[in-house]
Structure formats: C-alpha cells, structure tokens
Amino acid sequence: MSEHIRHLVRVPISIEWWQDLITQDSETRCHCTKGLPPDAELVHDYYDPRLNCAYLVFQHPSFSALKPGEIIPDFIAEFHALDA
Q1: How far apart are CA 16 and CA 52, in angstroms?
Q2: In this model, does residue 56 exceed pLDDT 60?
Q3: For a designed S-S bond to 82, which of 29, 37, 49, 64 qualifies (C-beta 3.0 to 4.6 A apart)?
C-alpha cells in the first residue's frame, strides 16, 4: 500500500491585516520579495478562531513532501514597502 504524499504549505493571514486592507481609503503599496511559486495551487482554506487567523493551503511540487498526518508547515511571505 503506497502512502499519499503531498507537497503543501499553509499561509497564515491575520484577520486584522485583511480588515485594514479592505477598509475604504486605505492604501497598501508593497512588493512581494519572497512569495509562492506563480503556479502554486490553492487547495484548501480554513479559519482558526482560537488564533483569529485564516489559513490558505497551497500545493506545489517545490514544497517539501508530507506524509499523511504530518503537520503542514507555515509559509511566511515577505514584503518590501514601496514609496508612495
């Protein structure tokens, strides 16, 4: 019996950050300096009420292989603020 191996990461997203982002008249200018591969596929999303955090789960062959039951590692994107 072969094990089902997947290549996944999860991206935590602060609810407060999303609220700031979608508030009228807010302006966010940044450049993503460390991000997901352009062809990463969104496969799942969920909300953790204990942490007040949403998670987006992506799949891509470049991510580390995970066996069933292993914890999906967090992927933290990095941004550089752009001058206005």
Answers
A1: 9
A2: yes
A3: 29
